[in-house]
């Protein structure tokens, strides 16, 4: 058997402009909203998740897919240090869900556009602790 030339079948994409990247980020977030709606989540839940993502994006100043674990450490360990545990948990869950969406639907395109490999910055070391589940209260029995 003779050796054959191998070529890369992936599409080559040159550098993208800041405007293209901003439009792509907007489209990805719109896709996230649509995917969550198609999963049957209530509008209020989706709105809450998008609000959390928007607040983190405003703090970070770059697309969230650029976040590294050290960035999440700074955000959850400094910015949200004094916040109620429910806020930290909700924000971490929104970010984790968003990154799952990115990994499932957009990791190849993000890599082509930015050279970055999408990976959630929330890991076992910086995941906020606590439980968001309501505690069951059993009323006292009668006399």
| 3D shape | elongated
- Weakly predicted, low-confidence segments: none
CA-to-CA gap between the ends?
A: 90 Å
Mean pLDDT: 88
Structural class by helix and strand composition: mainly alpha
The percent of residues in helical segments reads 55-70%
Largest sheet: none
**Order of helices and strands, N to C?**
HHHHH
Number of helices, where a helix is a run of at least 4 consecutive DSSP H or I residues: 5
What's the alpha carbon Rg, rounded to whole Å? 20 Å
- Beta-strand proportion: under 5%
Number of E-type strands: 0
Which features does this protein show?
143 residues; mainly alpha; 5 helices; elongated
Secondary-structure blueprint:
Layout: H1 18-38, H2 43-60, H3 69-79, H4 85-105, H5 107-114
Helix pairs in contact: 1-2, 2-4
Summarize the structure.
By secondary structure, this protein is mostly helical. The chain has helices at 18-38, 43-60, 69-79, 85-105, 107-114.
